[in-house]
Each structure stands twice: as C-alpha cells, then as structure tokens.
Input
Amino acid sequence: MAFARVGGYLRDRGALFGSPAPDVIQYRFEDRGLVSAVAMRALVTPAGTEWIAISVPLGPAAEFRVRAALVANDELAIGALADWQGLMLLRQTLPLLGLTFAQLDAIIHALAHAAAQLAATAGYVRVSAP
Output
C-alpha cells in the first residue's frame, strides 16, 4: 500500500476531514459513541521504505507526569506515548508494504480505544485533570 492510497480510502468512507500537507492526513474516527481525531503521517526510512505514523492526541504534554507516563507507556498493548511539539500523542508506526486496509482499520480502532482508556484514567497520568 502507498500512503497516497490511504487518503483516498478514508475519503471514500467519508471520514477524512483534512490533509494540510501531502504527507499528512487528518481523520475522524467514530465507534459506538467514541469520537477521536486521528492523524496519519508518511515516514520514509533511510533505505526508502514507506511507513505510516498513526497518532491520537491526548492533551498538552506539560500536563503529564513523566514517570506516570512512562509506566503507562510500558502497560500499553498498542502504540507508545510521544511528545510532539508539546502535544502528548498515542502513536503507532507501521510499514506500509503489505499493509491492508482491513489491518489499517483494526489498528486505528485499537489505537483510538487505547487512547480513550488512557484519557479515562487521566488522573493517573496527568499533573492536573482536564
């Protein structure tokens, strides 16, 4: 799969809500009352292999206690916590080679639900509750 095909796939499903740059896709994930913003970014390894980074925002990074975030990060079944320009993300990277749309859907689903679970226990990770 090529990154360019991901945007078309999501557009056909009516869930794409932005593409601020050729290598960035913004997507609205909805499932049984859960609504999450999901961002996808194209990555290329030094060897030229295409990867995708899928991220769900959790909140301002400054609000997260570092040790608690590291403990939470170790307990995640999918994704990893990342600080991107001051925003805490739950992020998963994957090679695009051989990735199917069904697999992409399953990964987005699992990542969005894991992010929601983290948000539900925000008092454990955040310095102050939102």
Helices lie at 3-12, 66-75, 101-120, 122-125.
